Batch of 2 targets.
Target 1
Amino acid sequence: MISRRRVLVGAAALAATAALGSPPNSKPRRIALNNLHTGERLEIEYFRDDAYVADALAAIEVLLRAFRNGERHAIDPKLMDYLVDVAAQVAAPPAFSVISGYRSPETNDRLHERSNGVSQKSLHMQGRAIDVRMTGIESTVLAAGAEELQRGGVGFYRASNFVHLDTGAFRTWRG
Protein backbone atom coordinates (compact mmCIF):
# COMPACT_ATOMS: atom_id res chain seq x y z
CA MET A 1 0.00 0.00 0.00
CA ILE A 2 1.28 3.46 -0.90
CA SER A 3 1.17 5.92 1.94
CA ARG A 4 0.44 9.62 1.62
CA ARG A 5 3.93 10.33 2.97
CA ARG A 6 5.54 8.17 0.26
CA VAL A 7 3.60 10.01 -2.45
CA LEU A 8 4.65 13.39 -1.01
CA VAL A 9 8.31 12.34 -0.76
CA GLY A 10 8.21 11.10 -4.34
CA ALA A 11 6.61 14.32 -5.56
CA ALA A 12 9.22 16.38 -3.70
CA ALA A 13 12.04 14.38 -5.29
CA LEU A 14 10.51 14.88 -8.73
CA ALA A 15 10.15 18.62 -8.12
CA ALA A 16 13.78 18.85 -6.95
CA THR A 17 14.98 17.07 -10.08
CA ALA A 18 12.95 19.42 -12.26
CA ALA A 19 14.30 22.45 -10.40
CA LEU A 20 17.88 21.34 -11.07
CA GLY A 21 17.19 21.45 -14.77
CA SER A 22 17.73 17.80 -15.60
CA PRO A 23 16.33 16.69 -18.93
CA PRO A 24 12.79 15.32 -18.67
CA ASN A 25 14.13 11.91 -19.68
CA SER A 26 17.05 11.05 -17.39
CA LYS A 27 18.42 8.27 -19.60
CA PRO A 28 22.02 8.77 -20.73
CA ARG A 29 22.32 11.27 -23.56
CA ARG A 30 24.93 11.26 -26.32
CA ILE A 31 25.74 13.73 -29.03
CA ALA A 32 28.13 13.84 -31.98
CA LEU A 33 29.51 17.18 -33.14
CA ASN A 34 31.72 18.00 -36.11
CA ASN A 35 33.18 21.52 -36.15
CA LEU A 36 33.31 22.46 -39.84
CA HIS A 37 35.89 25.22 -39.27
CA THR A 38 38.45 23.24 -37.25
CA GLY A 39 37.73 19.71 -38.47
CA GLU A 40 37.45 18.53 -34.86
CA ARG A 41 34.94 15.81 -34.09
CA LEU A 42 33.46 14.67 -30.82
CA GLU A 43 31.07 11.87 -29.96
CA ILE A 44 30.32 11.93 -26.27
CA GLU A 45 27.91 11.00 -23.51
CA TYR A 46 27.22 14.32 -21.81
CA PHE A 47 24.45 13.23 -19.42
CA ARG A 48 24.30 10.11 -17.24
CA ASP A 49 23.10 9.02 -13.81
CA ASP A 50 20.72 11.99 -13.64
CA ALA A 51 23.52 14.54 -14.04
CA TYR A 52 25.50 16.36 -16.70
CA VAL A 53 29.04 15.00 -17.11
CA ALA A 54 31.51 17.79 -16.33
CA ASP A 55 34.36 16.38 -18.45
CA ALA A 56 32.01 15.98 -21.41
CA LEU A 57 30.74 19.55 -21.07
CA ALA A 58 34.36 20.75 -20.96
CA ALA A 59 35.12 18.82 -24.18
CA ILE A 60 32.02 20.33 -25.83
CA GLU A 61 33.18 23.80 -24.73
CA VAL A 62 36.53 23.22 -26.45
CA LEU A 63 34.93 22.00 -29.68
CA LEU A 64 32.45 24.90 -29.76
CA ARG A 65 35.02 27.60 -28.94
CA ALA A 66 35.26 30.75 -31.08
CA PHE A 67 37.24 29.37 -33.99
CA ARG A 68 38.60 32.78 -35.05
CA ASN A 69 40.47 33.50 -31.79
CA GLY A 70 40.22 30.29 -29.72
CA GLU A 71 38.25 31.99 -26.94
CA ARG A 72 36.17 29.56 -24.88
CA HIS A 73 32.96 30.01 -22.96
CA ALA A 74 30.76 27.65 -20.96
CA ILE A 75 28.07 26.08 -23.16
CA ASP A 76 24.55 25.81 -21.79
CA PRO A 77 23.97 22.05 -21.33
CA LYS A 78 20.30 22.62 -22.21
CA LEU A 79 21.54 23.51 -25.70
CA MET A 80 22.83 19.94 -26.05
CA ASP A 81 19.46 18.64 -24.79
CA TYR A 82 17.72 20.79 -27.38
CA LEU A 83 19.90 19.37 -30.16
CA VAL A 84 19.26 15.79 -29.05
CA ASP A 85 15.52 16.44 -28.84
CA VAL A 86 15.44 18.07 -32.29
CA ALA A 87 17.29 15.06 -33.74
CA ALA A 88 14.72 12.74 -32.17
CA GLN A 89 11.93 14.93 -33.57
CA VAL A 90 13.27 14.42 -37.11
CA ALA A 91 14.00 10.70 -36.45
CA ALA A 92 17.76 11.06 -36.89
CA PRO A 93 20.77 10.24 -34.72
CA PRO A 94 22.02 13.28 -32.79
CA ALA A 95 24.98 14.03 -35.08
CA PHE A 96 25.49 17.66 -36.11
CA SER A 97 27.84 19.62 -38.31
CA VAL A 98 28.58 22.87 -36.48
CA ILE A 99 28.93 26.14 -38.34
CA SER A 100 29.05 28.34 -35.24
CA GLY A 101 28.97 27.68 -31.50
CA TYR A 102 30.35 30.22 -29.05
CA ARG A 103 31.10 33.56 -30.66
CA SER A 104 33.33 36.19 -29.03
CA PRO A 105 31.84 39.67 -28.60
CA GLU A 106 34.48 41.12 -30.98
CA THR A 107 33.61 38.64 -33.71
CA ASN A 108 29.90 39.16 -33.14
CA ASP A 109 30.35 42.95 -33.50
CA ARG A 110 32.23 42.50 -36.80
CA LEU A 111 29.58 40.12 -38.14
CA HIS A 112 26.77 42.41 -37.00
CA GLU A 113 28.36 45.34 -38.88
CA ARG A 114 28.40 43.27 -42.08
CA SER A 115 24.95 41.66 -41.80
CA ASN A 116 21.61 42.60 -40.34
CA GLY A 117 21.07 38.85 -39.82
CA VAL A 118 23.46 38.86 -36.84
CA SER A 119 21.95 40.04 -33.57
CA GLN A 120 23.93 42.60 -31.61
CA LYS A 121 22.96 40.67 -28.44
CA SER A 122 23.42 37.20 -29.92
CA LEU A 123 23.02 34.24 -27.58
CA HIS A 124 26.13 32.81 -29.28
CA MET A 125 28.10 35.15 -26.98
CA GLN A 126 26.54 33.46 -23.93
CA GLY A 127 27.16 29.87 -25.06
CA ARG A 128 23.40 29.48 -25.57
CA ALA A 129 23.21 29.28 -29.39
CA ILE A 130 24.51 27.10 -32.18
CA ASP A 131 24.27 27.05 -35.98
CA VAL A 132 24.07 23.52 -37.38
CA ARG A 133 23.11 21.22 -40.19
CA MET A 134 22.71 17.43 -40.32
CA THR A 135 23.95 15.03 -42.97
CA GLY A 136 20.99 13.40 -44.69
CA ILE A 137 18.41 15.80 -43.20
CA GLU A 138 17.32 18.85 -45.16
CA SER A 139 17.72 22.03 -43.15
CA THR A 140 14.06 22.83 -43.85
CA VAL A 141 13.12 19.57 -42.12
CA LEU A 142 15.49 20.26 -39.24
CA ALA A 143 14.03 23.75 -38.72
CA ALA A 144 10.47 22.42 -38.92
CA GLY A 145 11.26 19.74 -36.32
CA ALA A 146 12.70 22.34 -33.97
CA GLU A 147 9.69 24.61 -34.49
CA GLU A 148 7.36 21.74 -33.57
CA LEU A 149 9.06 21.50 -30.16
CA GLN A 150 8.21 25.18 -29.55
CA ARG A 151 11.21 25.72 -27.35
CA GLY A 152 14.09 28.11 -27.87
CA GLY A 153 14.95 30.12 -30.94
CA VAL A 154 14.81 28.61 -34.41
CA GLY A 155 16.30 30.50 -37.34
CA PHE A 156 16.40 28.97 -40.81
CA TYR A 157 19.00 30.24 -43.26
CA ARG A 158 18.17 28.72 -46.67
CA ALA A 159 20.98 30.37 -48.66
CA SER A 160 23.66 29.17 -46.21
CA ASN A 161 21.89 25.87 -45.51
CA PHE A 162 21.91 25.90 -41.73
CA VAL A 163 19.60 26.19 -38.74
CA HIS A 164 20.23 28.40 -35.72
CA LEU A 165 19.03 26.95 -32.40
CA ASP A 166 19.21 28.62 -29.02
CA THR A 167 17.94 28.27 -25.47
CA GLY A 168 16.24 31.66 -25.37
CA ALA A 169 12.49 32.23 -25.60
CA PHE A 170 10.61 30.40 -28.36
CA ARG A 171 10.64 32.42 -31.57
CA THR A 172 11.26 31.72 -35.24
CA TRP A 173 12.71 33.62 -38.19
CA ARG A 174 14.09 33.18 -41.68
CA GLY A 175 17.45 34.57 -42.68
Note: The mean pLDDT is 86.
Target 2
Amino acid sequence: MSQRLRADLALAICTLIWGATFVVIKAALADISVMVYLSVRFGLAALIMAALYWRTVRTLTISAVGAGAQVGCFMFAGYLFQVFGLRLTTPSKAAFITGISVVFVPIILAVFARRRISGWIWTGAVVALSGLYFLTVPAEGLGGLNRGDPIVFGCAVMFALHMIFISRGLQRHSVAAISFLQVATTAVLAIFSLPIVAAAGWERPRVVWTPFVIFAVLATAILCTVLCFSLQTWGQKHTSASHAALLLSLEPVFAALTSVWLGQEQFGARMLLGAALILGGIVLAESKAAPESTPAEIPA
Protein backbone atom coordinates (compact mmCIF):
# COMPACT_ATOMS: atom_id res chain seq x y z
CA MET A 1 0.00 0.00 0.00
CA SER A 2 1.44 3.37 -1.01
CA GLN A 3 1.99 6.21 1.46
CA ARG A 4 -0.57 8.34 -0.35
CA LEU A 5 -3.21 5.62 -0.08
CA ARG A 6 -2.47 5.31 3.66
CA ALA A 7 -2.93 9.08 3.93
CA ASP A 8 -6.26 8.87 2.10
CA LEU A 9 -7.43 6.10 4.43
CA ALA A 10 -6.38 8.15 7.47
CA LEU A 11 -8.41 11.12 6.25
CA ALA A 12 -11.38 8.85 5.46
CA ILE A 13 -11.29 7.48 9.02
CA CYS A 14 -11.39 11.05 10.31
CA THR A 15 -14.49 11.84 8.27
CA LEU A 16 -16.17 8.63 9.50
CA ILE A 17 -15.63 9.52 13.15
CA TRP A 18 -16.46 13.22 12.76
CA GLY A 19 -19.59 12.42 10.76
CA ALA A 20 -20.76 9.77 13.22
CA THR A 21 -20.47 12.15 16.20
CA PHE A 22 -22.18 15.15 14.58
CA VAL A 23 -25.58 14.17 16.02
CA VAL A 24 -23.95 13.47 19.41
CA ILE A 25 -22.62 17.04 19.69
CA LYS A 26 -25.99 18.53 18.69
CA ALA A 27 -27.76 16.50 21.40
CA ALA A 28 -25.16 17.26 24.07
CA LEU A 29 -25.59 21.03 23.60
CA ALA A 30 -28.98 20.72 25.30
CA ASP A 31 -27.15 20.23 28.62
CA ILE A 32 -23.82 22.03 28.14
CA SER A 33 -23.08 25.51 26.81
CA VAL A 34 -20.87 25.94 23.76
CA MET A 35 -17.85 27.51 25.47
CA VAL A 36 -17.90 25.08 28.38
CA TYR A 37 -18.10 22.19 25.91
CA LEU A 38 -15.19 23.48 23.83
CA SER A 39 -13.09 24.21 26.93
CA VAL A 40 -13.60 20.77 28.45
CA ARG A 41 -13.28 18.87 25.18
CA PHE A 42 -10.09 20.52 23.98
CA GLY A 43 -8.61 20.92 27.48
CA LEU A 44 -8.92 17.17 28.08
CA ALA A 45 -7.61 16.38 24.61
CA ALA A 46 -4.59 18.67 25.09
CA LEU A 47 -3.67 16.94 28.36
CA ILE A 48 -3.90 13.51 26.71
CA MET A 49 -1.80 14.64 23.74
CA ALA A 50 0.80 16.23 26.03
CA ALA A 51 1.20 12.82 27.69
CA LEU A 52 1.36 10.99 24.36
CA TYR A 53 3.79 13.42 22.73
CA TRP A 54 5.80 14.39 25.83
CA ARG A 55 9.15 14.01 24.05
CA THR A 56 8.03 16.43 21.35
CA VAL A 57 6.53 18.83 23.89
CA ARG A 58 9.82 19.02 25.80
CA THR A 59 11.75 20.06 22.68
CA LEU A 60 9.32 22.54 21.10
CA THR A 61 10.92 25.56 19.47
CA ILE A 62 9.55 29.10 19.22
CA SER A 63 9.10 28.57 15.49
CA ALA A 64 7.06 25.38 16.04
CA VAL A 65 4.91 27.05 18.70
CA GLY A 66 4.19 29.92 16.31
CA ALA A 67 3.22 27.59 13.46
CA GLY A 68 1.08 25.37 15.69
CA ALA A 69 -0.63 28.34 17.32
CA GLN A 70 -1.47 29.72 13.88
CA VAL A 71 -3.16 26.45 12.91
CA GLY A 72 -4.87 26.31 16.32
CA CYS A 73 -6.36 29.79 15.90
CA PHE A 74 -8.13 28.68 12.71
CA MET A 75 -9.25 25.46 14.41
CA PHE A 76 -10.69 27.39 17.38
CA ALA A 77 -12.47 29.87 15.12
CA GLY A 78 -13.88 27.04 13.00
CA TYR A 79 -15.31 25.18 15.97
CA LEU A 80 -16.62 28.38 17.53
CA PHE A 81 -18.57 29.22 14.38
CA GLN A 82 -19.71 25.63 13.88
CA VAL A 83 -20.96 24.86 17.39
CA PHE A 84 -22.62 28.25 17.92
CA GLY A 85 -24.25 27.94 14.50
CA LEU A 86 -25.34 24.38 15.18
CA ARG A 87 -27.49 25.61 18.06
CA LEU A 88 -29.45 27.85 15.68
CA THR A 89 -29.76 25.73 12.54
CA THR A 90 -30.40 22.11 11.57
CA PRO A 91 -27.63 19.50 11.46
CA SER A 92 -28.23 18.94 7.72
CA LYS A 93 -27.82 22.63 6.88
CA ALA A 94 -24.76 22.88 9.11
CA ALA A 95 -23.22 19.82 7.45
CA PHE A 96 -23.77 21.24 3.96
CA ILE A 97 -22.45 24.72 4.75
CA THR A 98 -19.39 23.30 6.53
CA GLY A 99 -18.74 21.10 3.50
CA ILE A 100 -18.37 24.19 1.30
CA SER A 101 -14.77 24.29 2.55
CA VAL A 102 -14.06 21.69 -0.16
CA VAL A 103 -14.36 24.54 -2.69
CA PHE A 104 -12.81 27.27 -0.53
CA VAL A 105 -9.46 25.45 -0.28
CA PRO A 106 -8.56 25.58 -4.01
CA ILE A 107 -10.00 29.12 -4.29
CA ILE A 108 -7.84 30.42 -1.42
CA LEU A 109 -4.77 28.63 -2.79
CA ALA A 110 -5.35 29.98 -6.29
CA VAL A 111 -5.89 33.58 -5.14
CA PHE A 112 -3.43 33.99 -2.26
CA ALA A 113 -0.78 31.34 -2.91
CA ARG A 114 -0.91 31.79 -6.71
CA ARG A 115 -0.95 28.03 -6.93
CA ARG A 116 -2.22 26.34 -10.07
CA ILE A 117 -4.87 23.81 -9.08
CA SER A 118 -5.54 20.91 -11.43
CA GLY A 119 -8.74 21.18 -13.43
CA TRP A 120 -9.64 17.70 -12.25
CA ILE A 121 -9.42 18.84 -8.62
CA TRP A 122 -11.75 21.75 -9.45
CA THR A 123 -14.15 19.41 -11.26
CA GLY A 124 -14.09 16.88 -8.43
CA ALA A 125 -14.69 19.63 -5.87
CA VAL A 126 -17.71 21.00 -7.76
CA VAL A 127 -19.19 17.49 -8.21
CA ALA A 128 -18.64 16.79 -4.49
CA LEU A 129 -20.24 20.12 -3.58
CA SER A 130 -23.29 19.20 -5.69
CA GLY A 131 -23.44 15.92 -3.80
CA LEU A 132 -23.27 17.76 -0.48
CA TYR A 133 -26.32 19.79 -1.52
CA PHE A 134 -28.43 16.77 -2.48
CA LEU A 135 -27.28 14.83 0.58
CA THR A 136 -28.00 17.46 3.22
CA VAL A 137 -30.61 19.90 1.85
CA PRO A 138 -34.28 18.79 1.66
CA ALA A 139 -36.14 18.80 -1.66
CA GLU A 140 -37.94 22.05 -0.77
CA GLY A 141 -34.58 23.83 -0.57
CA LEU A 142 -32.81 25.72 2.15
CA GLY A 143 -36.08 27.34 3.12
CA GLY A 144 -34.46 30.68 3.79
CA LEU A 145 -31.46 31.52 5.91
CA ASN A 146 -31.76 31.52 9.67
CA ARG A 147 -29.38 33.06 12.20
CA GLY A 148 -27.26 29.92 12.40
CA ASP A 149 -26.51 29.56 8.69
CA PRO A 150 -24.19 32.57 8.17
CA ILE A 151 -22.40 31.64 11.42
CA VAL A 152 -21.67 28.15 10.09
CA PHE A 153 -20.56 29.71 6.80
CA GLY A 154 -17.74 31.35 8.76
CA CYS A 155 -16.81 27.88 9.99
CA ALA A 156 -16.34 26.65 6.40
CA VAL A 157 -13.88 29.46 5.68
CA MET A 158 -11.94 28.84 8.91
CA PHE A 159 -11.68 25.08 8.32
CA ALA A 160 -10.43 25.69 4.78
CA LEU A 161 -7.68 27.93 6.18
CA HIS A 162 -7.02 25.35 8.88
CA MET A 163 -6.29 22.67 6.28
CA ILE A 164 -4.06 24.99 4.26
CA PHE A 165 -2.01 26.12 7.25
CA ILE A 166 -1.57 22.53 8.49
CA SER A 167 0.16 21.78 5.18
CA ARG A 168 2.21 24.97 5.53
CA GLY A 169 3.30 24.11 9.09
CA LEU A 170 4.25 20.55 8.17
CA GLN A 171 6.85 21.85 5.73
CA ARG A 172 9.01 22.86 8.70
CA HIS A 173 7.74 20.99 11.75
CA SER A 174 6.80 17.46 12.83
CA VAL A 175 3.36 15.88 12.77
CA ALA A 176 3.45 15.46 16.57
CA ALA A 177 4.29 19.15 17.15
CA ILE A 178 1.53 20.51 14.88
CA SER A 179 -1.01 17.95 16.18
CA PHE A 180 -0.43 18.86 19.82
CA LEU A 181 -0.02 22.60 19.39
CA GLN A 182 -3.21 23.14 17.36
CA VAL A 183 -5.27 21.33 20.01
CA ALA A 184 -3.49 23.06 22.91
CA THR A 185 -4.02 26.47 21.30
CA THR A 186 -7.72 25.74 20.81
CA ALA A 187 -8.00 24.68 24.47
CA VAL A 188 -6.27 27.86 25.73
CA LEU A 189 -8.40 30.13 23.52
CA ALA A 190 -11.62 28.37 24.60
CA ILE A 191 -10.78 28.60 28.30
CA PHE A 192 -9.79 32.28 28.11
CA SER A 193 -12.87 33.10 25.99
CA LEU A 194 -15.25 31.51 28.49
CA PRO A 195 -15.44 34.47 30.95
CA ILE A 196 -15.33 36.99 28.09
CA VAL A 197 -18.34 35.43 26.37
CA ALA A 198 -20.18 35.28 29.71
CA ALA A 199 -19.35 38.92 30.61
CA ALA A 200 -20.52 40.08 27.16
CA GLY A 201 -23.84 38.35 27.75
CA TRP A 202 -23.52 36.17 24.65
CA GLU A 203 -23.86 32.90 26.54
CA ARG A 204 -24.31 31.86 30.16
CA PRO A 205 -21.91 29.05 31.15
CA ARG A 206 -23.85 25.95 32.14
CA VAL A 207 -23.42 22.21 32.30
CA VAL A 208 -25.47 19.31 33.60
CA TRP A 209 -23.18 16.29 33.90
CA THR A 210 -25.60 13.71 32.58
CA PRO A 211 -24.22 10.34 31.43
CA PHE A 212 -24.78 11.41 27.83
CA VAL A 213 -22.86 14.68 28.22
CA ILE A 214 -19.95 12.80 29.83
CA PHE A 215 -20.01 10.30 26.95
CA ALA A 216 -20.13 13.12 24.38
CA VAL A 217 -17.18 14.97 25.93
CA LEU A 218 -15.06 11.80 26.23
CA ALA A 219 -15.92 10.60 22.72
CA THR A 220 -15.21 13.93 21.05
CA ALA A 221 -12.08 14.61 23.09
CA ILE A 222 -10.47 11.20 22.58
CA LEU A 223 -11.75 10.09 19.18
CA CYS A 224 -12.65 13.30 17.34
CA THR A 225 -9.75 15.36 18.68
CA VAL A 226 -6.79 13.27 19.88
CA LEU A 227 -7.14 10.52 17.28
CA CYS A 228 -8.64 12.36 14.32
CA PHE A 229 -6.53 15.50 14.38
CA SER A 230 -3.41 13.36 14.73
CA LEU A 231 -4.54 11.30 11.74
CA GLN A 232 -5.51 14.38 9.71
CA THR A 233 -2.17 16.06 10.38
CA TRP A 234 -0.26 12.91 9.45
CA GLY A 235 -2.42 12.43 6.35
CA GLN A 236 -1.77 15.98 5.17
CA LYS A 237 1.95 15.33 5.48
CA HIS A 238 1.56 13.03 2.47
CA THR A 239 -1.04 14.85 0.36
CA SER A 240 -2.07 18.36 -0.65
CA ALA A 241 -4.57 20.59 1.16
CA SER A 242 -6.93 20.64 -1.83
CA HIS A 243 -6.88 16.84 -2.04
CA ALA A 244 -7.44 16.54 1.72
CA ALA A 245 -10.42 18.91 1.53
CA LEU A 246 -11.98 16.73 -1.14
CA LEU A 247 -11.65 13.61 1.00
CA LEU A 248 -13.03 15.41 4.04
CA SER A 249 -16.22 16.13 2.08
CA LEU A 250 -17.14 12.55 3.01
CA GLU A 251 -18.05 13.76 6.51
CA PRO A 252 -21.70 14.64 5.69
CA VAL A 253 -22.09 11.20 4.05
CA PHE A 254 -21.20 9.49 7.33
CA ALA A 255 -23.27 12.04 9.27
CA ALA A 256 -26.32 11.21 7.16
CA LEU A 257 -25.74 7.45 7.47
CA THR A 258 -25.50 7.80 11.25
CA SER A 259 -28.71 9.81 11.31
CA VAL A 260 -30.47 7.10 9.29
CA TRP A 261 -29.06 4.36 11.52
CA LEU A 262 -30.37 6.17 14.63
CA GLY A 263 -33.79 6.49 13.02
CA GLN A 264 -33.69 10.28 12.76
CA GLU A 265 -33.77 10.40 8.96
CA GLN A 266 -34.95 8.27 6.05
CA PHE A 267 -32.46 7.23 3.38
CA GLY A 268 -34.19 8.28 0.17
CA ALA A 269 -33.21 8.67 -3.47
CA ARG A 270 -32.04 12.27 -2.95
CA MET A 271 -29.65 11.25 -0.17
CA LEU A 272 -28.38 8.34 -2.25
CA LEU A 273 -27.72 10.67 -5.21
CA GLY A 274 -25.82 13.07 -2.98
CA ALA A 275 -23.61 10.34 -1.54
CA ALA A 276 -22.92 9.00 -5.03
CA LEU A 277 -21.91 12.45 -6.32
CA ILE A 278 -19.53 13.01 -3.40
CA LEU A 279 -17.88 9.64 -3.94
CA GLY A 280 -17.81 10.30 -7.70
CA GLY A 281 -16.12 13.67 -7.20
CA ILE A 282 -13.44 12.09 -5.01
CA VAL A 283 -12.83 9.23 -7.45
CA LEU A 284 -12.71 11.67 -10.39
CA ALA A 285 -10.07 13.87 -8.77
CA GLU A 286 -8.14 10.89 -7.41
CA SER A 287 -7.94 9.02 -10.69
CA LYS A 288 -7.40 11.93 -13.11
CA ALA A 289 -5.40 14.53 -11.19
CA ALA A 290 -1.63 14.37 -11.17
CA PRO A 291 -0.21 13.85 -7.66
CA GLU A 292 0.84 17.10 -5.96
CA SER A 293 4.18 16.38 -4.39
CA THR A 294 4.49 19.57 -2.37
CA PRO A 295 1.98 20.59 0.31
CA ALA A 296 0.17 23.83 -0.35
CA GLU A 297 1.61 26.99 1.15
CA ILE A 298 0.46 30.54 1.59
CA PRO A 299 3.27 33.09 1.72
CA ALA A 300 4.02 34.32 5.25
Note: Confidence is low (pLDDT under 50) at residues 290-300.
